[in-house]
Amino acid sequence: MIQPRSQINQIAMYSPGKPVEELKREKGLSKIIKMASNENPFGYSPLAAEAIQSEMKELPFYPEVTSPILAEKLANRLEVSPDQIIFGSGSDEVIRLLSRTYINEGDEVVMAGVTFPRYKTNVVIEGGVPVEIDMQNGTHDLDAMYQAINEKTKMVFVCNPNNPTGTIVEKEALRRFIEKVPSHVMLVMDEAYYEYADSSQYLETLPLLNQYENMVILRTFSKVYGLAALRIGYGLMSSEMVSHLRKVKEPFNVNRLAEAAASASLDDDEFMHESINLNREGREYLNNSFDHMNLGYFPTQTNFIMVDVGAPAEEVYEYLLDEGIIIRPGHLMGYPTMIRVTIGKKEDNQRFIECLQAYLEKKNANVNQS
Ligand SMILES: Cc1ncc(COP(=O)(O)O)c(C=O)c1O
């Protein structure tokens, strides 16, 4: 048997939210509600659809290597230099590029105990050592993360807002943390859900980017822009770091349709604001429903909520699957009685609550009988 590198035996394949097509096949259901992968249930901009259509004639041709036209447009919008932007096949790829480019064997990487799993996987692949720090109430413990930094630390990930808990770190605490992280340690701020965060406690990190050369910000077109299938996200960092990552990336890592759709999406703030507003309404509805049902949940600044259903997550997951609703069970993330639900369209949120209520009533009736 040909053996892979030893690091590969330490990791598992990424476990995504169950695909709609798979559940349809398994259960013979025609209508499925997917509330499992934090996608945008409201679709994507019609301008993106037009741009894709018109770019189709270019399919025989490779895209440009650094997406310069999109970079220029995004740079103007974000007030950074185009050479401070690197695009990836999703921000997933930028996480991989950062690890590939910077992690040496034995380097430590500090991250929250329950956070986006791709940090840990990529660090392990490179022979690095993930240092996972316990959370406090589903929130990064920045003091403990700072304490964990030593001379072996190469990188720190702060997922803000955090996936899967949806929480943000408090503004002043984050500002102090950014100030204290030593300059030889790369600080990666993963802001995949940036556009959804509306708390006055959310820190805008972009204005700090040029002040802290060790800082990286990750954002994506997969969430509020609704382009998850096209795979395009980006990292903002010093131009020197970008030049290193560009040597490591595949030349044509971002495809033409993704570039065209992302670029057009930047011209449609109306679609983005509409998605944010509808998500906010859904968030309020779900929070209120959970309050009525006496269920605790982490305060979310994203398009998903992690709620404690007080029952085995796996059982709730299976029950909801039978009803054609896909969510994420928390036992896979260290929260055995919690589930993570992506905020959906109004009718889907209502149906989810109805089914969850039915499950809990049934469960209570069984408990009372026995
Ligand atoms: C926190 C976080 N970072 C990064 C990603 C990767 O997103 P994408 O590769 O689609 O840009 C996700 C996707 O769910 C995420 O939740």
TrEMBL record:
* UniProt keyword Transferase, yes or no: yes
Q: Which cofactor does it need?
A: pyridoxal 5'-phosphate
Entry-linked CDD domains: AAT_like
Q: Which positions bear N6-(pyridoxal phosphate)lysine?
A: K223
Provide the Aminotransferase class I/classII large domain boundaries. 31-354
Q: What's the EC number here?
A: 2.6.1.9
Assembly and interaction partners: Homodimer.
Instruction: From the Swiss-Prot or TrEMBL record, give the protein name.
Output: Histidinol-phosphate aminotransferase
This protein's species is Halobacillus shinanisalinarum
